[in-house]
Specification:
The protein is an all-alpha fold and 219 residues long. It has nine helices and no strands. It is globular and about 50 Å long. The termini are close together.
């Protein structure tokens, strides 16, 4: 359960309610299947406490959704890798379903923790995942030679888009985790990517809905 209560419907104002409505429609199209109605747009409902920030953030998400310099597979892998590193249940839930719709297999979802040695990912996939991993560390660990290797496959505009996607996913994840926003059920009954384990820990295994989420992170 979220740790903050969204403002009552009428208190949010017409603009906020329009943002919620459009966001719920967009998320439904993106995931391609229904989710828990009370949790579908829960992160945005928390932002309703700050109407000006809500409007600006909604515009940021809308603009991000309109960027298509990267192929969808690389976008999905980068965002989902960042989500597994922050261990955001909402982000992993949604990101797994989106990745599946964009061509990432269930086997690849489960192979993300050991992508660097997996034959399921090609050289470019691994570069994207390594970049997302380095960006999501604290402190950030992105050496110059990694960016140079990326430039062998991507334009500067594509690298900026990749960087923006990973940074935004970290913002989403940390916001959701701090406020206790849980999975919405986008991947209910299907395979989910595994949250990245702490250093030295074994990956969590589950056959339950939202596979890979530890019990305390399941909806």
């Amino acid at each position: 359960m979220a740790r903050v209560t969204p403002p009552p419907g009428r208190a949010t104002g017409v603009r906020a309610r329009m943002v919620f409505w459009f966001t719920e429609r967009a998320l439904g199209r993106l995931a391609g299947r229904p989710a828990h109605p009370d949790r579908l747009a829960e992160p945005l409902r928390a932002y309703a406490h700050l109407p000006g920030v809500l409007r600006g953030y909604a515009k940021l998400e809308q603009a991000t959704a309109g960027t298509h310099r990267l192929v969808r597979r690389h976008q999905a892998l980068a965002e989902l890798k960042a989500a597994t590193l922050t261990q955001c249940a909402y982000c992993i839930d949604l990101g797994s379903e989106v990745a599946r719709r964009w061509g990432v297999s269930d086997e690849e979802l489960l192979a993300l923790p050991h992508y660097d040695t997996s034959p399921l990912f090609d050289e470019v996939d691994k570069l994207v995942l390594t970049y997302a991993e380095g960006m999501s560390r604290t402190p950030v660990d992105v050496p110059a030679d990694l960016v140079q290797r990326l430039r062998e496959h991507f334009t500067d505009a594509q690298i900026v888009e990749l960087t923006h996607l990973v940074a935004l996913e970290n913002l989403r994840g940390r916001f959701n985790l701090a406020l206790g926003i849980e999975a919405a059920g986008f991947s209910q009954g299907r395979v989910c990517a595994l949250p990245a384990p702490p250093p030295g820990a074994a990956p969590y295994q589950s056959d339950d809905a939202l596979t890979g989420l530890p019990p305390e992170k399941r909806s």
